[in-house]
Amino acid sequence: MTEASFSKFFNNSQTFGLNIKVPTRNLQQIGKTAGDVTGGVLEPLFTYLEENENVFSGDVAFELNKTRAAKFNTEVIMMATDEKTNGPKPMFDSKF
Prior knowledge:
By secondary structure, the protein is mainly α. It contains four helices and no strands. It is elongated and about 100 Å long.
């Protein structure tokens, strides 16, 4: 094969795979699938950040106080209900 015929052979041929036409429907499905995959992964993260926006905005002290108040109120209600149900706590005299 001479140099002229060698270069003519490669200049006239196309690279394998670039001459395949993909239907537009397939491209649309690929785009939709890629969007659903990334959305499915990132959606819970964005939801978490949105729900806890007060914590991430720097208002941590307010959120902590709100949580402590809710915990205290829950404990008071539970102790009152326990005392109603089971009676007063027994008192043991440890002095002999």
